[in-house]
Amino acid sequence: MRPVVVPFFISHLGCPHRCIFCDQEKISGSRTALPDTQAILDKIEEFRASAPGRQLEVAFYGGSFTALPEEVQLKLLGAVQPYLAGGTVTSLRISTRPDAVDHAAGSLLKRMGVGTVELGVQSMNDEVLRLAGRGHGGRDSEQALATLKELGFRVGVQLMPGLPGDTLERSVASLKRVLQDKPSFLRIYPTVVVAGTELAELYRHGRYRPLALGEAVTWCKELLKLARQAGVPVVRLGLQPTEELETPGVILAGPFHPAFGQLVESEICFEVMASLLEGATPGSEVGFRAAPGRTSDLVGQRRCNLRRLAERFEVRILKVREDDTLGRDVIVLEGPHGERFRSLADR
Ligand code: SF4
C-alpha cells in the first residue's frame, strides 16, 4: 500500500528566480510561509490519527528546497527525524530547481533521510528555458539528474509542454533527453496562464498563445506513449485541481481540465481501438473488453470515442465491458470473425 503523503507547501520560498509562468501560491493553493517545527509535528500527528497503521511520507513541495539556507533545510528536515527513526514516517521528499542541486546539496538531503527529489526541469530546450526566464539551461538539469541518481535518490522530473517557444518536436526532444537519464517518474503539466504572472501579461498583449485543450491532449498523448515505452511512470498529467485554481479569474487561459489525465488516456485508447477496427466490415457489430476501471477511458467523455469510431468505421459498437482476466494495458475487440487484442504500450 502506498504511503499517505503529509504535504507541506513552501511555495516559492528559497527560489532566487521568478519564472514567467510561476505563481506557486495559486498553483499549490497554499500561502507562502515556512512551517515551524510545531506545525510540522502537529500535521504529522493529525495524519497519523486519521490514517492509523498507514505509512506516512512527508513532502516539502513547491519552492526550491535546496536553495533555502542550509540551517532552514536542516530545521525543516530535522523536525521529521524522530518520526523517521520511529518508523511512523517512512519516506521524505522535496522538490527543487536543477541549478540548486550539487553534490553538497544532495549529500545534505541524503544525510537527513530524503529519499525522493523532484526536479522542475520544465523543458530541456535552452531557448524555451530562456523565454520562460528559468535562469538555467538543459545542461543544468542533466547534471542535477546525474548527481541525484549517483547519490541514490528516486528522482522525479516535472515537464511543462507549451511554454513560449515550445513546439511538439521540442517537447518530444526534451522528454527523450530526460528519459536517457532514466528518472524514476515524471509529472507533466501543460502550461496554463495564471493571473498575476509575466506570462499573463504576454498573453494579454497577444504575445503568447497557450495550447488549446485538444492540442495539449495530442502533445501529452505522444509524451505519455514515449514515457511508457521507456518504462518510466507518469504519475501526474495536468495540474491538480484546487479550490484556488478553480476560482474564476485565476486561470486566464490554457488547457486546464480537472480530468486532463483521463482525456489523454482516453485518446490513447481511441487510437488503439481504431487500430483494432482497421479493415472491419462496414455494418458489422462489434464490442470491446478491457481491464476493470478502464471502461470510461475506452468510452471517452460523453461517449465521444464510441461515436467517432462508429462514424469512421461504420460499425455498431454494441458493448464495452470489463474483464478481470485482462492486464490494465490490453484492449480486446470482439468482432464477427473472432477476437483481436492489442496493448496500449505498443502504440
Ligand atoms: S523555479 Fe519554481 S518556484 Fe522558482 S520561480 Fe520558477 S517555478 Fe517558481
Automatic annotation (TrEMBL):
Its cofactor is [4Fe-4S] cluster. The keyword Mitochondrion does not apply. GO terms for molecular function: 4 iron, 4 sulfur cluster binding; catalytic activity; metal ion binding. Gene3D superfamilies: tm_1862 like domain. Residues 1-233 form the Radical SAM core domain. GO terms for biological process: tRNA wobble base 5-methoxycarbonylmethyl-2-thiouridinylation. It comes from the Bacteria. GO terms for cellular component: cytoplasm. Pfam families: Radical_SAM, Radical_SAM_C. Keywords: 4Fe-4S, Iron, Iron-sulfur, Metal-binding, S-adenosyl-L-methionine. This is Radical SAM protein.
